């Protein structure tokens, strides 16, 4: 088994945190080899940012694959730039609040989740990445949701005021991902 995932968006959208949380959750709960490879644009907040997560039951050959199985895009620029990096039969998860461009191909599954709007409903844009992480887990069922939530709370639990908000954001995302799956 090997999973190649790319997460892309603007700096400040929590792109790197999605990759870090997913990588850590996989490391904590499996014996897979996992790599996390971040890439920042010239400026952090507002510039482009993307990361790769590769999880495999074998040695990881490259932490930055040319073609990915799944892509999470948080903005329109990333959709246009990276949609062709997804293998045929792969999936693209979009922040449909901001991503208006389509995949422009019919050989991938597009899963639109309005994470910016959902985070605003919760009262804070700071959790839009946690909403997307929940949606991704809810749709893919890649791993036990409680293990992922435990990782979120462990790594982000230092700010007490965000614990309940992160729980709500993750739950809202899970629900949206399950609903999108049908």
What integer value in Å does the Rg equal? 15 Å
Helix/strand/pairing category: alpha/beta
Q: Determine and state the CATH class.
A: Alpha Beta
How much β-strand is present in the residues?
Answer: 25-35%
Name the shape in a single word. Answer: globular
Q: What is the count of distinct domains?
A: 1
- Strand sequence of the main sheet, in spatial order? 2-3-1-4-5-6
Low-confidence stretches: none
For CATH, the homologous superfamily is named as Pyruvate-ferredoxin oxidoreductase, PFOR, domain III
User: Architecture, according to CATH?
Assistant: 3-Layer(aba) Sandwich
The string of secondary-structure elements, in order, is: EHEEEHEEHHHH
Total helical elements: 6
The biggest sheet amounts to:
6 strands, mixed
Share of residues in helices: 40-55%
Instruction: Please report the distance between the alpha carbons of the first and last residues.
Output: 25 Å
Q: What average pLDDT do the residues reach?
A: 93
Number of strands: 6
CATH structural fold name: Pyruvate-ferredoxin Oxidoreductase, domain 3
Describe what you observe in this structure.
The chain has six helices and six strands. With 182 residues, it is α/β, with parallel strands linked by helices. The chain has a single domain (2-181), classed as Pyruvate-ferredoxin Oxidoreductase, domain 3. The chain has a six-stranded mixed sheet, with helices on both faces. Helix 2 (76-82) links the parallel strand 4 (68-73) and strand 5 (86-95). The protein starts with a strand and ends with a helix.
């Amino acid at each position: 088994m090997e999973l190649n995932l790319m997460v892309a968006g603007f700096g400040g959208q929590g792109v790197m945190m999605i990759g870090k949380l997913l990588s850590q959750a996989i490391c904590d709960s499996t014996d897979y080899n996992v790599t996390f490879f971040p890439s920042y644009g010239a400026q952090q907040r507002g510039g482009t940012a993307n990361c790769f997560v590769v999880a495999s039951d074998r040695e990881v050959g490259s932490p930055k694959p040319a073609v990915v199985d799944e892509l999470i895009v948080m903005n329109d620029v990333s959709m246009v730039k990276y949609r062709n990096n997804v293998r045929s039969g792969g999936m693209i998860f979009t922040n449909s609040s901001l991503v208006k461009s389509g995949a422009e191909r019919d050989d991938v599954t597009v899963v639109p989740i309005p994470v910016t709007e959902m985070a605003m409903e919760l009262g804070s844009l700071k959790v839009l990445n946690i909403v997307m992480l929940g949606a991704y887990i809810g749709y893919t069922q890649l791993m036990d949701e409680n293990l992922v939530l435990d990782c979120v709370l462990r790594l982000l639990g230092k700010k007490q005021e965000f614990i309940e908000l992160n729980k709500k954001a993750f739950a809202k995302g899970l629900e949206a991902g399950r609903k999108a799956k049908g």
